[in-house]
Amino acid sequence: MNTAIPPALIVAHGQPSDPAPAAAQLDQLADAVAQQAGGRAILAATLAQEGALGKALAQLGPQGVVFPMFMAGGWFTRVALAEKLRSAGGQGWQVLEPFGCDAAVHLLARDVLAKELQGQDPTRAQILLAAHGSFKSTAPSDVAFALARRLKSDLGLARCEAGFIDQTPRLADAQGFGAGSLCLPFFAAMGGHVTEDIPRALEQAQFAGRILPPLGLHPDVPALIADALTRATPVCAQTCRYSAPAAG
């Protein structure tokens, strides 16, 4: 272990109804990131597993960086997660920007679709970006809408739209996506939303295309996270305290 480099903790929501499988997947991701990060101490914890956050912090020490394996920022990652860290003894930990907000992840989404569309005319391609969304905050949809616009522009697509599980426009209402369409789940892991909710919604919408694996499972993801942690190290060396945004 390189003690000169602050440790890192990858945090995800997990699966409250069945915490163990999601926790095991996140542990595997942390191991893969560690292999890319030159011996840096990296652990994982899901919020769905009782006590997992405090246990990981106790192992890693008083200061470090938290990488939120979430697809959007907003109140939860900027305020609620910091409060959970403090409650678990992690007052000296810095919360980084979440996975889904990293520009490198957006470029990965573009590259994934470009590879899938090789040999096809992109001006005839139809892409549906499946995301979670929220009726409480626009932060999750802002990221998905922005990515959909960028994908459409960068790839010259005929159509690229975002659809959501928990807000409008709903995936179940996505119309007109034919047999050659692609659905890219903008999700971090293979949870119930990906295995059950998205297929069910697309069946209701009569989506005739193909569903790709969630973006968070791409083989390049561990290297992207390791790079994000490396970029955060100079900041962490100066201060490892998270400051909640000012009210208003």
Write the layout of secondary structure elements.
Layout: E1 8-12, H1 19-36, E2 42-46, H2 52-60, E3 63-68, H3 75-87, E4 92-95, H4 103-116, E5 126-131, H5 139-155, E6 159-164, E7 182-185, H6 192-204, E8 210-211, H7 221-238
Write structural notes for this entry.
41% of the residues lie in helices and 15% in strands. The strands form two sheets. A four-stranded parallel β-sheet has the order 2-1-3-4, sandwiched between helices. A four-stranded parallel β-sheet has the order 6-5-7-8, with helices on both faces. Helix 1 crosses helix 7. The protein is α/β, with parallel strands linked by helices and 248 residues long. The chain has two domains: 112 residues, Rossmann fold, CATH 3.40.50.1400; 115 residues, Rossmann fold. The chain is built from seven helices and eight strands.
